[in-house]
Amino acid sequence: MQWISCNKIFAVIGGLLLVLVGCNALPSQSDSGAATAAQSAGATGQISFMVFGDPAEKAAYEALVTAFNVIHPQIAVELMHIPSQADYRQRLGADFVAGTPADVVLINYRRYAPFAAKGVLEPLGPYLDKSTLIKVEDFYAKAVEPYYWQGTLFCIPQNLSSLVVYYNQDLFDQAGVPYPSNDWTWAEFLEAAKAITQDTDSDGMTDIYGLGTDATIFRVAPFVWSNGGDLLNDPIKPTGLTLDEPATREALQWFIDLQVVHKVAPDAVQEQAEASESRFLNGRLGMFLNSRRGVPTYRTIEDFAWDVAPLPVGKVGPSTILHADAFCMAKATENKAAAWRFIEYANSVAGQTILAQSGRTVPSLKAVAESPVFLAPDLPPANNQGAFLDTIPYIRAVPIMDSWVDIEATMSEEFERAFHGDSTLDASIDAAVVRTLEFFR
Fold first, then answer.
1. Which of 65, 109, 111, 385 has the maximum number of C-beta atoms within 10 A of its C-beta?
2. Distant-in-sequence, close-in-space partners of 405: CB < 8 Å, separation ≥ 6
3. What is the sign of the dihedral through the CA atoms of 254, 257, 259 and 264?
């Protein structure tokens, strides 16, 4: 089966962009062009906008800037694109330290707190309160709530995504395994992974793996929650880890055993030789855990059919973890009026429609997420409703702390050692508890 590539999608977007900005193809809302223009008196000049992502994501932001300039020709937006997330984060930190950040930047909810704590972000709550184009109630609360720092809304989220299972339907068919349901269990998940894992040429080496995943605490956290456990002793103001509690430890061990015992996931050597996402793209991986951001790339797949499913359900019910990025304004921005106009437009129905057409985002605006623009019945994945929208009530965010990045990174380092069999779970838990103590002080 062949799917339309993301390049073709953006060719269509480019040709229809000016029409989409003002036509009835958008979800219903008061005319965004007229409303924005009425609010933009005095907003002129130039602003910079820094983003990260692959070529398809860059194309979406270019389309966003172009559409904004149709309505606001008096505001020039300089798009600064850094492909690698790691490089982007490094650049973002360095620019804020130097006092030369871009006017508008994208920041993940797990990473904005240090900037808010240092006072280098402009609070956006007061701007949103005065907007006649967007209102806080237009957004899913699960996306907005994490961007409140000490009671003030600092950034406007463009998206929210749960962690989901991308799966190769052809490999499921070949293994004689039914496709995942929206309420499948851990046992069914493991059974599918085992059935798909194959040494196809009988040389003693696994050629097709059932599962691929980043070996991070962020990937395993929803499995812990679904088992009734937790990572921390307080989800709001934690003072330490609870990785050794029975329900937490059971979930961590179950996840580790996927690789160490059942061998359904690549070990460290195999993962280093070829990343799991590459294996999925090449048709040699049954399931891959990822957020929505992989969709533009996966839509380029032509050799097999694929879809998405929610995470399997554990003992206490469904659970998943929040992935969200937001538009933030630098405090040092000289042209705050123009920067807000761009942020406001980007998070209006018109702006989020453009980004949603890339496949990259689950829109944070209810009107766009629940429309054909996102549900896209003619494009994969087919199960957008079940995997992304129906799971919103079960999305959980990690704590908003200025030290969370360090806590998460430390836990992930220790978890990865256990996942690849270089440490026992008990040893990794003990090390994580000791190593993270300083970050809770």
1. 109
2. 110, 111, 114
3. negative
Instruction: Find the helix packing angle between 404-419 and 246-260, rounded to 10°.
Output: 50
Residue 42, pLDDT score: 63
CB neighbours of residue 6 within 10 Å: 25
Name the pTM for this structure.
0.90
How far is C-alpha 206 from the chain's CA centre?
30
The tokens of 205 are what?
């080496």
Both tokens assigned to 328: 């933030």
Tokens at 308, concatenated? 């998405």
Residue 315: CB atoms within 10 A of its CB come to: 13
Please choose, from the candidates 394, 423, 364, 348, the residue with its C-alpha nearest in 3D space to the C-alpha of residue 134: 348
Instruction: Please state, in angstroms and rounded to a whole number, the distance separating the CA atoms of residues 299 and 283.
Output: 13
What is the pLDDT confidence band of residue 54, given thresholds at 50, 70 and 90? Answer: confident
d(CA 153, CA 248): 32
Query: What's the rounded Cα separation, in Å, for the pair 240 and 327?
Result: 31
Phi, psi (deg, nearest 5) at residue 80: -110, 115
Domains (ranges, CATH) in the chain?
6-160+323-369 (3.40.190.10), 164-321+397-440 (3.40.190.10)
Spatial distance between the Cα atoms of 252 and 131, rounded to a whole number of angstroms: 45
Q: Could you say which DSSP state residue 428 is in?
A: H
pLDDT of residue 41: 52
**Degrees (nearest 5) of the Cα angle 5, 6, 11?**
100
